[in-house]
Amino acid sequence: MNMLIIENEPFIRLGAFLGIFFGMALAELVAPRRRLLTSKASRWFANIGIVAINTVLVRLLFPVAAVGMAVIAAQRSWGLFNNVAVPYWMAVVLSVVILDFVIYLQHVLFHATPIFWRLHMMHHADMDFDFTTGSRFHPIEIVLSMLIKMASVVLIGAPAVSVIIFEVLLNATSMFNHANVRLPLGIDRVLRLFVVTPDMHRVHHSVFPFETNSNFGFNLPWWDRLMGTYRDQPRLGHEGMTIGLNQFRDPSRLTLLGILALPFVGKTGNYPINRRGVSDEDS
């Protein structure tokens, strides 16, 4: 059964992606949270174009990818769970949780280090917030993220099935928590105890740096609460908040080519966590 899942990993991931893609697109039409301010056609062309570029790039540079590294690590007895006797199901569950924490730490790192923030700015420069924003990452950031993920898989000794589960969940929740979907407040309040919701993550896309540097989780919401980076609501409310970055407010600059060039020509602003001389009140 496990080998069947591993052999069909590309089809599983593609099927999950398409299912969530069309599901979120429909949900945004039925129950939108905010009115979009910029051209959806232009944004979607750029955002989906980035997905296509990143997919081809990863397949070319990483033929075995993270799942392949898990198989190699198991064959060579590398990593924690390949050397410590624990039930298989426990190794799978713990691997998914640990990998999610690694992604949380990676996200914080990309906000804390100006050179990495330059890459991550592409994601935050989107002036609207919908499920396509969840896949909008610069190709260089995707390559670095894949290297971090592969190294983590080897160190953990994560079972290959857990890597597939993690990547499907991460992709699905990234689209879900970036969706422009209105959830009843009661449901959101309960749901965000178990998964990052759109209202929780939208705070992270505020133009205010002290809100941008909060709610880093993509899948599990616990890390922000445990690490002190959780912010319940945006200061101006979800309808009143401004999405994006202060230094990028011209939609004509945010074309596919424009956002690919953005890390090399754009300014970092006051967003890096370790910036000096800027308080939250100044942001």
User: How many H/I helices?
Assistant: 14
Structural class: mainly alpha
Domain tally: 1
The averaged pLDDT comes out at 91
Q: What's the helix-strand series?
A: HHHHHHHHHHHHHH
Binned, the helix content reads: 55-70%
The main β sheet shows up as: none
User: Looking at the structure, what is the overall shape?
Assistant: globular
Radius of gyration: 19 Å
Uncertain ranges: none
How much of the sequence lies in strands comes to under 5%
Ends distance: 53 Å
Beta-strand segment tally: 0
Give an overview in words.
This protein is an all-alpha fold and 283 residues long. It has one domain (2-265). The protein is 60% helix and 0% strand. It has helices spanning 2-7, 9-30, 40-61, 65-75, 88-112, 114-124, 139-156, 160-177, 185-191, 198-202, 209-212, 222-227, 237-240, 256-265. Helix 2 packs parallel to helix 8 (160-177), helix 4 (65-75) packs antiparallel against helix 8 and helix 5 packs antiparallel against helix 7 (139-156).
Task: Provide a short characterization of the protein structure.
The protein is built from 14 helices and no strands. By secondary structure, it is an all-alpha fold.
What are the main properties of this structure?
283 residues, mainly alpha, membrane, transmembrane, Fatty_acid_hydroxylase
Set down the secondary structure blueprint.
Elements: H1 2-7, H2 9-30, H3 40-61, H4 65-75, H5 88-112, H6 114-124, H7 139-156, H8 160-177, H9 185-191, H10 198-202, H11 209-212, H12 222-227, H13 237-240, H14 256-265
Helix pairs in contact: 2-8, 3-7, 3-14, 4-7, 4-8, 5-6, 5-7, 5-8, 6-14
